[in-house]
Amino acid sequence: MDTGDQKPKISETKDGSTTLYSPLFDQHYHNPNGAVAESKIVFFETPGLLKELQSRNHLAIFEMGFGTGLNFILLKHYLEELQNPPTVDFYSVEAYPVDPDTAAQFDFGEELNRHKPGEILKSIFTEVNPGANSFSISESLTLNLFIGTFEEYPKPDQPIHFFFQDPFSPDVNAELWTPEVFQSLKSYADSSATLSTYCAASSARAAMAVAGWKIARAPGALGKREMTLASLNEKNLGSYKRVNEHRLIERYQKGDFD
Ligand SMILES: C[S@@+](CC[C@H](N)C(=O)[O-])C[C@H]1O[C@@H](n2cnc3c(N)ncnc32)[C@H](O)[C@@H]1O
């Protein structure tokens, strides 16, 4: 996990918020058209998490790739806007944690900067050790951050309601888009669970379908045509247009995505 001079570098996105560029994966951590705006749409609005935060007493969320911690800070922000927030256990895994001094420089825009994300993330990245780490962030929010690869990740200790599938894209981070990975996520899931991702690649959808997820396409964020939603129960996919899982499974078995 030594990234040497492959250390991620800060870059600004079009909504003014910062993201990182990873020389190791040759990819930005977020959409260059707006890091915060994309996270809101892909992980909070489209899968219905924003609504569920208002009505549930408790939620468990799993994120693949903690990265800059932006999704986590956004969650903290939404919880603090509620009068009676649910308790949320946020589980995340990160193989290449950002160095604390880089984290201190994050700018997530005016709305989120009120929460001093640089300070919070700097202290998280200073304190983490390899393996499991737990931080009680507020009365309603706990962060369970595993430092290591997903391959080493132990199953969360409670069923997950929302999955943020947020690795780099399948062409550079293929090991996190396999049927085996989606099978593991399925084994973590509550029966009501929804998985969302910015990715609309057929190969990624096929891997989900082979693992038994039901899939829908939704309008993509900020100039992207589509994103993907998945659930074990098709009722959770609402009115979003369904993808033909049988066809994708056939294509996967024929080797179309090898
Ligand atoms: C697109 S970034 C995640 C962005 C993040 N969710 C955020 O809010 O900033 C993908 C992350 O996945 C991590 N990653 C890549 N391969 C991994 C693996 N096998 N296990 C765990 N983390 C991995 C990368 O280091 C990177 O931080």
Return the domain count.
1
Shape: globular
Question: What molecules are bound to this protein?
Answer: S-adenosylmethionine
The CATH topology is: Rossmann fold
Write the layout of secondary structure elements.
Blueprint: E1 9-12, E2 18-22, E3 27-28, H1 35-45, H2 49-55, E4 58-64, H3 70-80, E5 87-94, H4 100-103, H5 110-113, H6 117-127, E6 131-136, E7 141-147, E8 160-165, H7 179-188, E9 189-197, H8 202-210, E10 214-219, E11 226-231, E12 241-242, H9 245-254
Parallel strand pairs: 4-5, 4-8, 5-7, 8-9
Antiparallel strand pairs: 1-2, 2-3, 6-7, 9-11, 10-11, 10-12
Helix pairs in contact: 1-3, 7-8, 8-9
The structure holds S-adenosylmethionine.
Residues 29, 63, 65-71, 93-96, 149-150, 166-168, 173, 175-176 line the site of S-adenosylmethionine.
Write up what this structure looks like:
This protein is of the alpha/beta class and 258 residues long. Helices cover 30% and strands 26% of the residues. It contains 9 helices and 12 strands. The chain has helices spanning 35-45, 49-55, 70-80, 100-103, 110-113, 117-127, 179-188, 202-210, 245-254, and strands spanning 9-12, 18-22, 27-28, 58-64, 87-94, 131-136, 141-147, 160-165, 189-197, 214-219, 226-231, 241-242. A 9-stranded mixed β-sheet has the order 6-7-5-4-8-9-11-10-12. A 3-stranded antiparallel β-sheet has the order 1-2-3, with no helix packed on it. The longest helix has 11 residues, at 35-45. The structure holds S-adenosylmethionine (SAM). S-adenosylmethionine binds next to α3 and β5.
